[in-house]
């Protein structure tokens, strides 16, 4: 009944998962996206963005062409590699043959460290992909080249804000870890082993990382869509 009274959270799977794991009531945005962006982009980036929008990009050299199919394959390759890096991380390794008992302390610091490491891996991989797509866009029409320039400015302008927001995920996940641990200690029926709640936590952590990967890849997918449209 308590869950049914909670407002439905809209947005990416990443946000909905965080809301579910933290039992948080997340209000719907009261401002349109453009207003929020105007608060996040400082005046120096605003000037750079204005320059990118007003500039007339150079036309691509004759004979240079963009193959959208090859870039789509590269995007799929990066997504697959990062997904495998998440799934294969040692945070999700099978427990030992003699797992600890439920009354033994479990430490979240290991999982936090692994989450942060995987975030760095995602940031680096997606950043390289986004740069590659911008390079391909710059070989297309002047409109495509302008889009590449705007995306580069927006990436720089929002990088600190994005890093801070996504960086809060491990702390929120830690609260979920503690709730599961305490619930297992209080539940006499679950007393024999800790692997049941730890397995549930690992599953939630893996799902949250994959959902975060989807969010991080959205700008690259937008650039790819532009390449496909103009190919």
Automatic annotation (TrEMBL):
Could you tell me the superkingdom of the organism this chain comes from? Answer: Bacteria
Which protein is depicted? DUF3348 domain-containing protein
Q: Which organism is it from?
A: Lysobacter firmicutimachus
């Amino acid at each position: 009944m308590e869950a049914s009274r909670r407002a439905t959270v809209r947005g990416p799977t990443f946000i909905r998962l965080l809301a579910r794991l933290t039992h948080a009531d997340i209000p719907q945005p009261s401002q349109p996206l453009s207003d929020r962006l105007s608060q996040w982009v400082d005046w120096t980036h605003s000037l750079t963005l204005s320059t990118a929008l007003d500039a007339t990009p150079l036309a691509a050299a004759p004979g240079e062409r963009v193959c959208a199919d090859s870039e789509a394959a590269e995007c799929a390759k990066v997504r697959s590699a990062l997904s495998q890096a998440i799934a294969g991380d040692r945070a999700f390794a099978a427990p030992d043959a003699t797992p600890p008992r439920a009354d033994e302390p479990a430490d979240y610091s290991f999982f936090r460290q692994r989450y942060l490491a995987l975030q760095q891996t995602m940031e680096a991989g997606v950043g390289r992909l986004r740069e590659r797509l911008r390079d391909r866009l710059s070989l297309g029409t002047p409109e495509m080249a302008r889009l590449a320039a705007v995306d580069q400015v927006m990436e720089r302008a929002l990088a600190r804000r994005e890093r801070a927001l996504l960086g809060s995920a491990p702390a929120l996940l830690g609260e979920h870890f503690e709730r599961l641990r305490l619930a297992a200690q209080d539940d006499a029926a679950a007393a024999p082993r800790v692997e049941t709640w730890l397995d549930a936590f690992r599953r939630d952590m893996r799902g949250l990382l994959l959902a975060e990967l989807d969010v991080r890849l959205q700008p690259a997918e937008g650039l790819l869509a532009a390449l496909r449209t103009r190919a």
